[in-house]
Amino acid sequence: MMLAAQRQNAILDAVRREGAARVAQLADELAVSEMTIRRDLDTLAANGLVAKVHGGATLAGSTSTFEPGFIAKSDQQRPEKAAIAAAAAEMVQPGMAIGLSAGTTTWTLAHLLKTVPAITVVTNSIRVANVFHDDPGPDQTIVLTGGVRTPSDALVGPVAAQTLQSMHLDIVFMGVHGFDIRAGFTTPNLLEAETDRELVKAGRRLVVLADHTKVGVIGISTIATLGQADVVIVDDAIDPEQHTVLGEHVQHLVTAKSRVGGS
Asked: Is 262 among the domain residues?
């Protein structure tokens, strides 16, 4: 049986490795009660090592303006992102004009869309544009907005915003830093929020892609309210209570089954 200090070190390692951790998952992995995990998180938070959020904890450095780089994020929640992207790809038909925001989940989606013919993809993500540039799809058109580059390889600012103001898209697929019932879908970057709001305006439908670790994470600026999303796609590792609450606030909630999720 682990000593409290050993258990807390294991919790801290998990949070550092993934950027966040859920109480239920930690309790299962360490074979202790959720109450024990919450007490451990209280201790770690009191020492300034983690920040408690609803249902779990994030790194103490994960403030409302903390923005991890693309590589760091791309290694996190891969099965969940793959499941969410697969569900989103089913919504894309040949001939559509779609928008893809920056993010590792939208980047995962981009790989699945390379075989869809005659689509026009508008994106402010260098990484997303490179997916189509490196392996061109059939009769596809790619529009990269331009702008100032962020740590997550998004192009933001007035140049990107002006480009998007002239666009009319069938669907916009939006990746987010986090979401909350009150704050809505958020980002830690003010300029990215401004650019993403223009991308939202350009689309007839907004589809938000967010894995379960995004619940309760609040960036400094709101992109859209929960009610503005036509569809929100989450993975099945989301806490059931959070799933129920989210379903009460969004227009249509899709739960994608991942390899690591529950029922």
From this structure: no
Q: State residue 255 phi and psi, 5-degree precision.
A: -110, 115
Under-70 pLDDT residues of the chain: 1, 18-19, 60-77, 259-263
The verdict on 185 and 74 lying in the same domain is yes
Q: What is the pLDDT of residues 77-107, one digit of tens each?
A: 678 999 999 999 999 999 999 999 999 999 9
- CATH code for the domain in which residue 36 is found: 1.10.10.10
pTM of the complete model: 0.74
Please spell the DSSP secondary structure of 10-56, one letter per residue: HHHHHHHHHSEEEHHHHHHHHTS-HHHHHHHHHHHHHTTSEEEETTE
